[in-house]
Amino acid sequence: MNTETITDKELALLRTLTVEPEWTVKFTELFDETVVVGEPRTITYINSGSGTHSIDIADKMGPEVEVFAVSETVELASQSAAKAETTGVGMDFSTSDPIGASDLSIADISLLSGEDIKTTILRCIGATNHSTAFFLTSSGSFGEVFSFLWEVLFELGKESHEESVAELIGGYPSIAEVEGILKEAGLKNIRSKIKNVPMDFASGKEFVESPLMRYFFLPIWLEAFSSSERDEITKLLAEKIDEELQGLSFRISVKAAIFEARRSAKSK
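The structure corresponding to this sequence follows.
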């Protein structure tokens, strides 16, 4: 399968088989270690992906707490609903946000970048009447990748697109930038935690061909290029990485960040 023909159903399957265990779990584990959920009556979970984390939260909270999970696609919603039914957890999955605000809103923003991050943060804020908590990829992530990508664009004579790399680097916000969004929205009791999460790939080829990169990150990073250009850039990117590392594994650094905030300083 390739990025031109892969279906939403196949992407949903990849979320469960590769993205969740290789990527999402690194964020949800930090979330569970950091965030005190408290005693909300209702929870909205935005971008619930394969559904595992939202189902786990619903299971821990018990049947007296309503958890509304919002999936990115119809296929993910269907897949997640089947998973919840199998585990005996009663909860709803939809592709639309609930009409009413919940006591707590949660969002997985880890696969997004640029303006989509701010848009989803504001969406998460709008989904709660009390508290919000979300996790995302923050500034300083993928520095090793962007350094190689810069070299590749220069070597291919695409200097005019080097500015795109700078935009990619700036597309992942700092802690201060996210806190600024929360403060501007009137939220208080803002807390954050950041953790460096390394990821290792046996080679440059394994890196560019991993489902996580091939279907979720590279399409975003190389959006400005045609299909043939993306293939050319990706091929040279793998070669550059392997040439530099000379048989060593390729380690990238991801800055996983968790944020919590409330609409008022008063704790519930």
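The longest strand covers residues 188-201.
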